[in-house]
Amino acid sequence: MDIVEINISLLDEGVDCWRPVKAQKLGENKYKIIGIDNYDPDNEKWQFLPGDIVVCEINKFSGGETGLIAVKKL
Question: What is the sign, positive or negative, of the torsion defined by CA atoms of 22, 24, 27, 32?
């Protein structure tokens, strides 16, 4: 079971914000979101939730680094 880090968009932040979370790789671009230990849905509104299976793409962030972002729920 491959566990990797993906990024989930935070909603209602006013600017683009991403939450890095653990996810289980299921296939080439498919991941099951595990989440983070201190996830609080009252504190942050995530585009996708723990347990969701998502498609991820490689993204280049404003700082120049690249990473996987969740783009669609399956």
Answer: negative
